[in-house]
Amino acid sequence: MKKNLFYLFVFALSCTFLISCNDDDDYNVDPKTLIAEISGTYLGDLVVTLDGFQVGQSTQQIYVTEDGEASVKLELKDFAITIGDATIAVGDIVVPGITLAGDQSKVELKETNVVINHPELKELQVKVTGVITGETADLHIVVYAAELKQNIDVTFNGERTSKEVKDYAMEVAAWYARTELTVTGVDIEAKYPVDGIEVTYVGFNKIGIKSFSLSCYANDKTVTRSISIASANLLVGADGDTSIGTVKQTLTHKTYGDAELELSGKFVDGVLTLNMTVTQGETKAVYVYTGAKKLTGYAIEKMTIDNSVVVVQPEFGDITTTAGSVVFFVKPEATEDQLKSLVPQFEISAGAKITLNNQEYVAGTPVDFTTGQKFVVQAESGKSKRTYTVTYQKLTSFDFKSDLNSWETKNETGAQYRIYEEPANGWATSNEGVAWIKLYPALYGPEAPYAVTQSDDAKSGKAARLETLNTTGQAGMGGFIPAIPVVTSGSLFTGSFKVNISNTLKSTLFGYPCFKQPVAFKGSYKYTPGTTYYYCAQPADKANEVVEDKTKTDLPAMNAVLYEVDSYAFEYLDGTNLLTSDKIVAIASVDGKAQAQYTDFNVSFKFLDNKTFDSTKKYKLAIVCSSSKDGDKFSGAPGSVLLLDDLEVTF
């Protein structure tokens, strides 16, 4: 058969129908009655023929649901078709807007003709018809490719197994603790799996089975083979029970040789029965595994603390398979006694339990949150657990204003070359990044200056001096140590700097909570561009490679950005998305240039289209300044100097 014809069929099914033409809507009864009569889940055979030759057959479920006042929608979820030994995944097939005719005893899905224009195959003509008689659905799809002048016929014949359209895979996904395992056909001890089998959710009525070991017979002895099922159909029976569609696969092993597996099963009242046949040559082992459902969830789904001292309820972040972080915010004046008497309330995964200090936590018990507390959630299966570290922060109102006269020393107890200064009271710089570069003295010497320093060249008092540095550059190593840039700009911002070794631009965590609508960003600056501008074409992975661009002169960057967050504790903009994130609500950007003397600026915030300040939402505000406008792309002119003084956002 022509391979193109199969792909044509797949494409035709997976495309969105663009143009639809239906006959006049003639109903013997109210269409709502017909819709109610045929809605549900149908299980049956899907057969594909080409010029009269059958090229594929598979068991599929089709879902019929209401689609407006007088039509239905047909869906095949996670559709796949098998031709020979090859299984091709197509995806969800959705056919909306099909009108009906007939009566309750026989409902006609009226012919729908659609035309699909494909860039390569040109015009495809598709015709869909069908009849549902009682509980039986007969559907017919014809795809005609004008250029190939051939028809592909697709037929479906199936029975309604449920009047519901429901995803049962969510319900059966769980750990099934072993209750019994029998094996016939071979004389071995069915030792493995010892404890259980885990069924996972894959998609709509699709499940998987995580890898497990099975005791098998090979080479005249008992061995173990690893079995895992990536995806299997979950079939819904008329009695409401669910079964696993038959899966066949080859179990390969260099030592024991290959064997053929056939697997099916069913779920009844929380019990999994798994039928497996393993065949190797003349040897056939037949297994029946039964397991009791034990849920595998082990999450804190919600945590609240009902106390007036708590102003922001617990926020979740940094969740891994074994650990999680939770932060809640309290009033600035909160006392230790108040923090010791807080009573948390938890919603956790069904079947799981939560412990504190190795004891099951009793609801309503006060917890001392003056120090971080570790709550452990264990799944009902006993196979998984996660430790949540819960801490508090005081929610203070950041001033977003600094005369830059107060500075503090960082890394005082470290090596001399790691000691630097930066503005006090919540301001951060790129100096910590420079400290890491100084680990490579051949690139940037230990005695070389930091990118951000305090300066007496100020409008009043002290000023911040930001300089773009030439840090030589070095290629990344092994995919886990990033390239060291040639151009390292000096940056000053509200927020914090935490080194991210995998992506240095994510080291800058911009912004603090903002509770009022900002009006303008103002301050004073001087700027002198460096003499030679370097352009980095691939900042993501080759920051060490630059070329001189004689057409460009460096410019400074001075921005104030208001952005929306779901979490004060864990959500930030960073060097990768400061001016591009879809979370941005408003920006005040200074059009800076070379200035020999201090120049004042006062720039109003511009709100993005369709965005406003909503006092019921959470926001952060970041002031971010750099000695090179494209320093986030590792482009700029070493020697560029930006002097800043009296920065402020007004409200």
TrEMBL record:
Query: In this protein, which residues make up the domain named Putative carbohydrate metabolism?
Result: 413-649
- As given in the record, the signal peptide range reads 1-22
InterPro entries hit by this protein: Lipocalin-like, PCMD, Put_CMD_sf
Residue span, Lipocalin-like domain: 39-159
Domain of life per record: Bacteria
Tell me which UniProt keywords the record has, alphabetically: Signal
**Mind telling me what this protein is named?**
Carbohydrate metabolism domain-containing protein
Organism, as annotated? Bacteroides intestinalis
